[in-house]
Amino acid sequence: MKKLLLPLSIAAILLGAAGSATAAEEDVTAWRLFVADHDKPVVNVIDALDGDKLNTFTVKGPASLYRSESGATVFAVQGSAGTVSTIASGIAFHDHGDHADIDVDPAKMLSTQFTGQKPGHFVERQGKVAQWFDGERYALVYSEAAVQDGKSDAKKVDVVAPHHGVAVPYDNYAVVSIPNPDDASERPVGARIVGLDGKKVGNDIACPGLHGSAGSGDTYALSCETGLLLVTQKGDTPEIRHLPYSSALPKGSVSTLIGGKGMQYFIGNYGPDRIVLIDPSDAQSFRLVQLPTRRVHFAVDPVRPKYAYVFTEDGKLNQIDVLKGEITKSVRVTEPYSMDGHWNDPRPRIAVAEDNIFITDPLQSKIHVLNAADLKEGKAISVEGHPFNIVAVGGSGKMHGGEHHHDHHDADHKAE
């Protein structure tokens, strides 16, 4: 076979193009904060790296915010307005094994939204969402991919009666809470596996007083008065086992759960001023940690997996070493925020992005920024109104040529 010889001029052009493509590849880090106001129907988008406001989206009511595992979508659940709005974060990653490419675009409101009475618990795993509605006889299960395309592939899953419960999506199934048969306004009494075709799978599992759920690794946990239900997947079907509380624990139970990132563990409240660290694989699964005062909010660190953070009503952020099972640092961040009063009064919330911890301070209209390495406070971010719920989206990746959308150009963009 003859070797194809290119004219020198064409070869030079091709070599130049290859060189410029390599030069155009750059490492890019982008992080954004999505911050909902406590009272107003707005979601602000803030550049986490420099504190600049990028967008303000108007929604229908004050929102609780949830990000998908991919970070590509942020869901604004507006319980009082009966609406779930969807926002494209503008930061997307494409995994190539040895590296990830990153796309950075302006955040935008997506056309797909979901409506129903009192939307509540939101659970997403592996690109599938289960949206609960406290006032409906069904939960909705749909895909993030459809939402991003401006479509809805939602299926309704029967939950027997309206109640304050939860659904967890698993491929062609969902695990749903079972309402109290005597009074659906009381806490649920158990969990069952239901196919998206409406058929029940296996036996119901008792879980009296079910309240609180979180995922970590390959396990999803539901908390009960008797312990935790641990849900894993075998093939495409979920399986449920019960992990009873240790007899060494004082009387009590978990009603709020968060799940570890990078390591498999759970943290739950255990009374107002204690938390419990839960390792389902350990013979001693439960370890209590005493807090200095009552807990306001807690969050895990997805970048430094052995740490979690608890904000307490004395205005302090407490760093928890989950391996040691103890508080390793405490710093004062805000004025005290008493847990007396209404459960939904504006109080601080925590999010972690790259090397910083962000804490909303709704009564002072700002977000505190702490360095995660030493918990030293940097310059705060001013936010109009009462900044409350907060999620962080972002990371680092390679960007190949093309136009890099600079966040600063979008500062005054508003969307209905």
Can you give a write-up of this model?
The protein has helices spanning 8-24, 144-148, and strands spanning 25-37, 42-47, 53-58, 64-67, 73-78, 83-88, 91-95, 100-104, 108-115, 119-125, 128-133, 138-143, 155-158, 167-170, 173-178, 190-195, 200-206, 213-216, 219-223, 227-234, 237-244, 257-259, 266-269, 274-278, 286-290, 295-300, 307-312, 316-321, 326-332, 350-353, 356-361, 366-371, 381-382, 387-400, 413-415. The strands form 9 sheets. The chain has a 5-stranded mixed β-sheet. Strands 4-5-6-9 form a 4-stranded antiparallel β-sheet. It starts with 7 loop residues before the first helix and ends with a strand. The chain is built from 2 helices and 35 strands. It is mostly beta strands. The protein is globular, with a radius of gyration of 23 Å.
Radius of gyration: 23 Å
Number of strand segments:
35
Number of helices: 2
Residues in helix, %: under 10%
Dominant shape: globular
Organism: Siccibacter colletis
InterPro entries: AztD-like (IPR047697), Quinoprotein_ADH-like_sf (IPR011047)
Region (Disordered): 395-416
Signal peptide: 1-23
Keywords:
about 50% strand; about 5% helix; disordered C terminus; globular; 35 strands; five-stranded mixed beta sheet; 2 helices; about 425 residues; four-stranded antiparallel beta sheet; mainly beta; disordered N terminus
Write the layout of secondary structure elements.
Layout: H1 8-24, E1 25-37, E2 42-47, E3 53-58, E4 64-67, E5 73-78, E6 83-88, E7 91-95, E8 100-104, E9 108-115, E10 119-125, E11 128-133, E12 138-143, H2 144-148, E13 155-158, E14 167-170, E15 173-178, E16 190-195, E17 200-206, E18 213-216, E19 219-223, E20 227-234, E21 237-244, E22 257-259, E23 266-269, E24 274-278, E25 286-290, E26 295-300, E27 307-312, E28 316-321, E29 326-332, E30 350-353, E31 356-361, E32 366-371, E33 381-382, E34 387-400, E35 413-415
Parallel strand pairs: 3-35
Antiparallel strand pairs: 1-2, 1-34, 2-3, 4-5, 5-6, 6-9, 7-8, 10-11, 11-12, 12-13, 14-15, 15-16, 16-17, 18-19, 19-20, 20-21, 22-23, 23-24, 24-25, 26-27, 27-28, 28-29, 30-31, 31-32, 32-33
